Amino acid sequence: MKVLASNATIPVERALNLLEIWRTRNFDADRLLKRSRISKVLLSSSKARLSQSQFSSFFNSAALLGRDESWGLCPVPIPIGSFALMCRSVARQPTLGAALRTGLNCYHVTARDFEARLTLTDERLARIRLTDRISDPECRRQFHATFVFFLYGMMCWVTGRRLPLAGVDFVFPRASASAEPARVYRTRVSYSSGYTELRFDAGLLQLANTQDAVSAEDFLRKSPGNLAVAFRDTASAAERVRRYLRRNLGEGSSLENMAGVLQLSVATLRRRLLDDNTSFQRLKDEVRRDVSIEYLVSTNLPLEELAMRTGFVEVSAFHRAFKRWTGCAPGDYRKRSAV
Prior knowledge:
With 339 residues, the chain is of the alpha+beta class. The protein has two domains: 10-229, no CATH class; 237-337, Homeodomain-like (Arc Repressor Mutant, subunit A), CATH 1.10.10. The chain has helices at 13-24, 29-35, 52-66, 82-91, 96-110, 137-159, 180-185, 213-222, 237-248, 255-261, 266-275, 280-298, 303-309, 315-326, 330-337; strands at 10-11, 49-50, 114-120, 125-132, 167-169, 189-190, 196-201.
């Protein structure tokens, strides 16, 4: 049975962090939620997830309402259109190194409160270091975390692949036990460091830019939600399993069936998924969750039909699973999303 071409969902904590700053600075947080069509009740669960379209709508709305592409985190606003200018300029460059230098230079022109510099520590290691003039500690934390997150997504988009990193350091202290940074960057992540910086093999700078003017326009229509998942490794066993499950959710699948589809032994598939820090059941749950959220946000399908399309025999089982994944029932999620 055909399902939506589901995109991965994004933890709600990124929106919650920005929303809290808006409230403490007396920005119009309620207007932001209304414009981005996200109910504040939906954000009451720390386990909630946003679809890529919801995530994009939230950050784009924050930029437009504040006339600031730093979303109110920098003292001096970044002019609207800076990100689009940067993307279009990046798409014209031949290599990752040229794209990074061009993109960072765009922000050197448009931004007043931060600088990001690409340098070589030696012949083998490159780094991008972020410095700033942001005095508010929480604004600084959120800006650094968000900038590095989107920067890495941009690097992966330019090259069309997940790039291995040698390390990520943040200048701010660790605030929570969230596993997201380790999952995203797949390298050592340090806190309370002297600088915020991202390090990688200098040889990656010579990788060809896989994008062009046409793909840049498509990218801009979907950003920044697509940046949040651009680091997916499409050739990995985990991604191959995800793609198959998205196409065949309603038909049911098992680890044994999946191994046969990939022409691997069960033991080999299990080992490769473990190497990707996941398992077949975890992937199946994630795909079911993400497809369910996309259906709830984008369609009016009855919950019984939605449960069947995501591989559940009984709607009650779907209700229990969805509440376990997101902290709220599917019907409530749909109501809260339809502001």
